[in-house]
Amino acid sequence: MTGVRERTSTAAPTDRSQLRFLRPADGLPDEGEPGRIGTGQVLRLITRQLFAVPVTDDPVGRPVPDVAREVPTVENAGISADGRTWRVRVRSGVYWDAQRAREVGATDVVRGLKRTAHPLARPMRPYFGALIEGLADYYRRYDEEFGHWAAHAPALAQFSHLTRVPGLRVEGDTVVLRLTEPASDLIDLLATGYAALAPREYDYYVPDSPELYRCNPACGPYRIARQLTPGGDFVLEPNPRWDPATDPIRQRTASRIDVVASSGDQPLDDATAFGVRSWDLPASPARFGGTGCSYYLSATPGGAAWSLAARRALTWAVDRAALAEAARAAGAVGAAAQHGVLQPGDPGAAPDTDAAPDNGDLTRGRHLLADAGLTPGSRLVLAVPVGSRPAVVAAAVAGVFIRYGVDVVTVSAGEPGADLTLREWTPRWAGNANRDLLHRIWPADGGSGDPAGVATEALRTLDPATATTLWRRFDRMATADLRLVPLIVADWPRTRANAVATGVARW
Fold first, then answer.
1. Which CATH architecture group holds 3-282?
2. Angle at the Cα of 173 (from 172 to 175), degrees rounded to 5?
3. Is the model's pLDDT at 465 over the cut of 80?
4. pTM (2 decimals)?
C-alpha cells in the first residue's frame, strides 16, 4: 500500500512541493483481500479510465466521466431501450506521452478491457465476464492458449488482436459495449483500475515485466521518470502531454513524487490536494458504505448454530459495541455496529427499527440461546479467515460469549467441524459494490425465497430510485433471513485508498 507525507524540500522557493509516497519494505500489509495492488494510488496519477471516482469524503460517491464525454443514459441515446447496449464517446484532447504524442482513442479502452484476461486481473473476471457479451469465452480461450502469464509478448498481442469479443466494438470515437443483461453498476466497474485504458505500447511487452515499466506511456498528470521495477522504488514527474482542461478528476500540485520503501510506523498526511484519497481521511461512523470492512457470522449447515432459532439468538446476544471498540483499539480509524447486510451509508441500507441494541441484550440473548440449545457449557467452533484483523474481531466475539457461558473456539477457515464462520468483506471497488457482496459473501441457494433474486433485479434496474427501493427490500429480507448475521463495519487504514484506485496498469 502507499501513503504520502510532505518531504522537506531543498529546492528554490519557486519550485512546487515534492511528495514522498511510502510503502512497507517487507511487502504489502496484512489485508486478507486478494486483488489489491499496493501502488494503486500512484498509478491513478498516470492512467485514466472512462469513468473515475472523484476525490471526496463521501464514501458512496459515484463515478463521473473521466475520458468519457458524458455518462450514458437512455435519454441521451447512450443506452439502448433494453439496457443492454452502451455507447460511450471518448473525450478528445487526451494524449499518451508516447515517443510522439498520440491521442487516446476508443481502441485503447477495448485493449484495456481485454487485458483483464491476464491473471493479475483475475479478481475482476467474474464481474466483467458475466456482463460483457463474449468476454467470459475470451477469458476461457486465453487460459487455454497460455495457461500462465509467461507467454511471449507477440503471442499475447496476436491473441488479443485476432480474438473477437462480440460485446466490445469500436465505432470511431465511440466504444460500444453489448451486455448480457442490463447493469446499473456498469459505470462503477468501468471506474476500477482494472478497466484502465491501455496504449498500443502495452502490446510490445509482457504484462508486469521490467520492459513494460521502462516503456509505460502515461495519459494522467504524471509519468514515470525513473524505471519502475516490481518491488522497487520509482519516481514520477509531470507529464508534459497532460492538459488539466481535459481531466475533471485529477490535479497536479507536485513537481516530483518519490515512491520508496519504508519501514516503521510513519505519520501520513492527507493526499487529496493532488487528486488521491488518503486512507487517514476522516469518516463519519454512520457512513461506511463502499469503503468499510464488514464482518458477519454465517452458520455451517448441520452445526450447532445452524437453526434459525440459534442465528436469531446470536444477533441478540452479540455485543456489537464491544466488537467495534476492539476494532478501534486494534487500529481501525472508525468502527460501528452493523445491523443490516448492506453497509451503513449504502443508499440501499434499510434501517431496522426492531434491531437488537448495539451492546446486545444480555437477558433476551441468554433466553434465546438457551431455547436454541446453547446453554452454559456449550461450545461453538468459529472458523476465522487468515489475518490479524479478523483475528481481533473473532477474539472479541469469543469474549462476548463468555458472558453467556458459551465457549467459542477459533480455528482456521476451511478446517472441518466449524459451527460458524467469520466473514470479512471489503468492497473491491467504490460506489455501488453490492454485486461484489453477492458474489463473494452472500450464501445464495437459488431457492424461491432467496433474497438474492431481489438483488439481481436491483442490479438490472437502470432507474436509480427503483434500484434503491429494491436494494432496501433486499436488505430487509436478507437481514431477516439471517444467512449472514451482521456484526460491525470497520474503517481500517488503507482500505479507503484501495477502494478508489485498485489494480491499474500492471497488465
1. 3-Layer(aba) Sandwich (3.40)
2. 95
3. yes
4. 0.85
